[in-house]
Every structure is written in C-alpha cells, then in structure tokens.
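Q: Got a minute? One more chain.
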Amino acid sequence: MHKIVTLALASMIAVSGATAALATEYTKGVVKKIDLKAGKVTIIHDELVNLEMPAMTMVFKTIDTAMLDKMKEGENIEFIADRVKGKLTVTELK
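A: Always. Here it is, folded:
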C-alpha cells in the first residue's frame, strides 16, 4: 500500500511540474497604434516564444475589446498572445 501511495504522489508531482512548464509567459511590448473601430492593436513586441515568432511589430485582435480601453499608444505592456480562430490575438494583459 505504501508503494502505491508513493507512486501516486510522484505521478502528481510530475504532472504538476509539466503543467507549470507549459504555462505561457508574458511578452513585453510597446503599443504603437490602437484601432478601436477594427478592434485591433499594433504592438512592437519581444519574441513570442509560444508562437515561435521573433521580435517584430504586428497587429493583433484582442480577446475582449475592453482591453483596448486599458491601452495607450506609446505605453509599455506585458501580454500573452495566441492564435484564436486562426487570428493572432492578445488573450491576457497585465
């Protein structure tokens, strides 16, 4: 019985460690332009590790248009971007 409990605990630790490794990191960027009408933001960003993209300037949609109200042109931000329905999208904003 002791071996089963030990094995179960070891498995849980391994799974939780793997989950933490998959967590997406925030990327630093600067807001270049906000297009409220189109619901898009242009960001000069560092490398997007999760999307395997080098640093560059790109246009993103936002998961929620209310995010655009929290941004200002020229502002430094930290964000998470992902592909949502095939479109590059800001999904989280610090």
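A: Residues 5-9, 15-21 have pLDDT under 50 and may be disordered.
Q: Perfect, thanks.
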